[in-house]
Amino acid sequence: MGIIGFVSAVSPAERIRFILGEEDDGPPPPQLFTELDELLSVDGQELEWKETSRWIKFEEKVEKGGERWSKPHVATLSLHSLMELKAFIEKGTVKLDMEGTTLPQVVETIIDSQVESGQLKASLKEKVMYTLLRKHRHQTKKSNFRSLADIGKSVSSASRLFSSQENGSPTPSHRNLTSNSLSDFSDKPEKDQLKNKFMKKLPRDAEASNVLVGEVDFLEAPFVAFVRLQQAVMFGALTEVPVPTRFLFILLGPKGKAKSYREVGRAIATLMSDEVFHDIAYKAKDRQDLLAGIDEFLDEVIVLPPGEWDPDIRIEPPKSLPSSDKRKNMYAGLDAPQMNGDTPHDTGNGGGGGGGGHEVGEELQWTKKFCGGLVLDVKRKLPFFASDFVDALHIQSLSAILFIYLGTVTNAITFGGLLGDATENMQGVLESFLGTALAGAVFCLLAGQPLTILSSTGPVLVFERLLFTFSRDNDFDYLEFRLWIGLWSGIFCLVLVATDASFLVQYFTRFTEEGFSALISFIFIYDAFKKMIKLAHHNPINANFNSDLVTQYDCRCIPGTNAFSRLPQPVNITWASLTKHECEKFGGQLVGEVCDFVPDITLMSFILFFGTYTCSMGLKTFKTSRFFPTTVRKLISDFAIILTILLFCVVDALVGVNTPKLIVPSEFKPTSPHRGWFIAPFGGNPWWVYLAAALPALLVTILIFMDQQITAVIINRKEHKLKKGAGYHLDLFWVAILMIVCSFMGLPWYVAATVISIAHIDSLRMETQTSAPGEQPKFLGVREQRVTGICVFLLTGLSVFMAPILKFIPMPVLYGVFLYMGVASLKGVQFMDRLQLLLMPAKHQPDLIYLRHVPQRRIHLFTFIQALCLALLWILKSTVAAIVFPVMILALVAVRKAMDYVFSQHDLSYLDDVIPEKDKKKKEDEKKKKNKKKGSIDSEMEFSDYPYHDNIPTIKISMEMEQEPMLADKSVYSEYESGFVLLRVAGAWLPLVLWH
Question: What is the spatial distance between Cα 946 and Cα 693, in angstroms, rounded to a whole number?
Fold first, then answer.
């Protein structure tokens, strides 16, 4: 058998794989600004290049009126224009990495190349040169241009500008025109370019791609050139914005095809805005690489039937763009992204995400060393300590401080009041303020994740109430007993830190995280309405008011049964003239139809409550509205909560209704006169109580560990794009230390607050400042720093001295902020999305990734189990059994583990994070080594251009044939009488034809 034929051409897919798979240590290719200029005539005489369209991500056209840009829209191309473009690239001039410093030099090099190759007559050199160096007029300049419909008629004036001899050589007038155009050309940007506000849409390192198309009457065949400069060069007024040009595409052709040339120009401009072709254009080595990029683009193009779609309709840019990483990874030979390590599947942007949880990084590795995790946390966070203060120097930090401060101070007052009622003021509002300031400030200064906000929680309040009742019934000193529980619990937490117990956090999957997060959010929402209902109960509305009987409505005070016994001495009292407070003080009785009702307060309070919530939601999303410049919208969005609170404080003051106001203690002293600022550890209780305190301390330890670590997992989720790493062990260490300190001072215990921490993260979100027109701003991450948290808690401590100012804030406004925080923290929770699916017909359901791969009945079953667990937790926390609430949260992990017997790992990989297996890392390492040895043959074959590769034998050439330079060095020889095989050469698959 012999080798008769060999197909030497590398397939387009292989070319793209080589291009995108090349390792490049340099920065990624810069963003491109693409401008389409068309050759038009002014007043039927002078020719100029007029900007008609531009691209960054989406196309913008100059409207036919010529006075404004269109809205950004998805570029719709004809398939014919793409095929014509491919033909032009095949036949035209392609110069990659051309050296050039001025536009005339570049143009002359292109023309000389075409003359040498015989594509352009030497006699036409001056004419083409003159045409290409005509002035460029951009949309920022106003001129008397004809409509685009008159292009074909007006360009004929070019014939009057060119008069040639019989031999075709240029006359002196031609040379004068060319020299004039060269003298008029400047490489420096013009004033209009420097003042162009469109520069704000471009990153600093952006480069330009200029597309020049037009028709002239002196050419018989199209003049086509694609140029990539070795270094981007500033070509003066060539581009609308002052950015250097890297790419140049030129298309000049005979008359009569202006529309066709324009469509080809739009095609190449759209290709340059495509992320994959953009990378190929920067890395291409020759013409064939560009053609392979066009073929790849054609493979992804969707064709719409002409009778079913009007091409004049402009398609609005989508809110979320599909990632190009999948296309790039496919051709780069990389494995498709896997969501949970063991279960590979499609990770397209179908919405909703798949796993989306935390990854088991080094923060959660079990070191098996004493305090090993704590030491690693300190080493990880210490290099960022200085930047944690520098990174806060931004106006956004101020809005975050004010927003979180108001939420924190409201929570401190509310919790302090409830704690005072539960403990007979042994702990009250002032203790809550002091404890919040002390614990929060120290934690934000020294902890591993300073974005976490500490606060008192509902389960802690339940425990305090039960502990106080138990101490009172058994004649124990409550604060001393509590001190020893805090000491034991702090010691237990330190033991957990020393043994790296936080590695158990990796078993907290989305099922557990979302269940806990949703529960806390529902508590915030429930408490906000509960407080408003309580306010309405104290200030009831007269629902039976009849305006016709207004003359009969009155309320008067009369002597009560024991009225005279309350008077200090017999006096004459005019009971009808007493105020309500005096009447109740002297034992009088209120009689009348309206005595129980308070006009307007409840109604005004609900207006403030719902108004605050609605306005907060509206202003927070204002940055995506169509009004005002981007900077103003961003500023309003950042200060949304503060502006809302100020607005409704003003509304409340203008209306003048006596709504309930924020009450802040004005003196710095313990709430109860029977205690001080230091709790003695001995003397109040029997000695055995100090040991017995370890038992309830176990429950508190579980509560602290679960509350702290679940919130930390939610904060550190990968979708928040945190750059400075987590510190689970370091966080728990400081929570334990602060718990011991607060126990000695008789202050409440503090742990991570889920909802307020999420609100803190949301208030510090960073997005791209240079979003392309039509493109939604990209989420860059969170402003990670310590200053906002420290300032919030210092302000909370100083609130005692700000009572004269804070007393003007209505409580309904703060309840509205509570409602906003609860609802906002549910945004993006997959559990809420799945709950909504229960009420949606299939045809109206969004395109979520798990809906594509998991049967709907399995999704509903998963949601039902999660909702059932949430309901049980809600019932439990509302009863006396709430003391075992932390144990039940821990039980969620067991429930999730049991779900492995109900759902397949495939389904769980889409609905939840797959629980990490014991030897998972070892298996993955072995798999990577195995794939490395195989050279990822299977992966490459999967993406081959040949659809029948499963049945095609592979062949490697024997050692005897190794002298051939193209052939592989390792070989296994296999014979076939005839047929079609694939040959592996230099890591690529090439077709080989064999026969006798």
Answer: 73
User: Based on the domain organization, do 800 and 909 belong to the same domain?
Assistant: no
pLDDT recorded at residue 893: 79
Whether residues 761 and 771 share a domain: the answer is: yes
Domain residues for 571?
Answer: 554-592
Strand locations in 184-312, DSSP E?
Answer: 207-215, 223-233, 245-253
pLDDT digits (tens, 9 = 90+) for 458-509: 677 767 877 887 888 788 888 888 888 889 999 999 988 888 887 777 777 7
Q: Is the pTM of this model over 0.70?
A: no
pLDDT value at residue 101: 86
Which H or E run contains 231?
strand 223-233
Helix/strand/coil percent split, the chain, to 5: 55, 10, 35
Amino acid found at 791: C
Closest CA to 483 of 679, 704, 732, 686: 679
Per the domain annotation, does 5 fall within a domain? no
Same domain, 235 and 289: yes
Q: What's the whole-number average pLDDT of the chain?
A: 75
Q: How far apart are CA 815 and CA 530, in angstroms?
A: 10
Phi (first) and psi of residue 228, to 5 degrees: -120, 120
> E strand or H helix at 177, and its extent?
helix 172-184
Overall number of domains in the chain: 5
- Between CA 899 and CA 869 the distance in angstroms is 13
pLDDT above 70 covers what percent of the chain?
A: 72
In three-state secondary structure terms, 667 is: coil
CB of 620 within 8 A of CB of 607?
no
The pLDDT score that the predictor gives to residue 251 is: 93
Region 538-551 average pLDDT: 67
Task: Please report the DSSP string for 135-152 in residue order.
Answer: -EE-TTS---BPPGGGHH
Q: State whether 780 and 857 are in the same domain.
A: no
